[in-house]
Design brief:
The protein is built from 5 helices and no strands. By secondary structure, it is an all-alpha fold. Helix 1 runs parallel beside helix 3, helix 2 runs antiparallel to helix 3 and helix 3 runs antiparallel to helix 4. The longest helix has 38 residues. The protein is elongated, with a radius of gyration of 21 Å. The two termini are 20 Å apart.
Length: 180
């Protein structure tokens, strides 16, 4: 269980850091103030989407990193029963990290689309936006297929599984938690 969450948090924090750094690269390469023919609202949208995406990426990295450090520290060096407490905390934090990561990805797409409109001609920006939206739809579709294949039937089932695991851990009646 600990190994799973270790990989989970490392993966999502790495991907969020990558997204945020790509947005930072966009910010340094696209100098919105120099595009005088671009509407002020579009410039504002560009800067806001960049800022929000960078903040979400940083949030994901920080929460995942702190969860890893403290969760693993508690699990490995804490008093008796601390492994259980660490797993419970990691389960709760995994929901925060995943949702923040998904919003970072949405922001990343918005930054890219607004960048098209900042630097390209209208016709090209429209084609690029269409392609990006098509990619978003295709990605969403494949993510839904993967979730259906490997995930729970619905969010309630997943929540029930988490709750059952926590109850099982709390009860300690499970033979898996007894030492011989």
């Amino acid at each position: 269980e600990i190994g799973y969450y270790n990989n989970y948090f490392i993966t999502y924090s790495t991907l969020a850091a990558l997204c945020a750094s790509l947005v930072v690269n966009t910010v340094t390469q696209v100098q919105a103030y120099s595009y005088t023919n671009v509407a002020r609202g579009l410039k504002s949208w560009f800067w806001l989407s960049c800022t929000i995406t960078i903040c979400l990426g940083i949030h994901c990295v920080v929460v995942a990193s702190i969860t890893l450090v403290y969760g693993l520290g508690l699990a490995l060096k804490g008093p008796l029963g601390s492994m259980i407490r660490a797993i419970k905390g990691m389960i709760k934090a995994s929901r925060i990290v995943f949702s923040t990561f998904m919003w970072t990805m949405v922001g990343f797409m918005i930054v890219n689309m607004s960048t098209f409109w900042m630097i390209a001609y209208t016709e090209i920006a429209a084609v690029c936006t269409f392609i990006m939206l098509l990619c978003c739809i295709l990605t969403t579709y494949h993510c839904m297929l993967i979730t259906e294949r490997f995930g729970w039937k619905d969010a309630e089932d997943a929540q029930n599984w988490d709750n059952q695991l926590i109850e099982r851990i709390n009860s300690r009646d499970d033979p898996a938690f007894h030492h011989s």
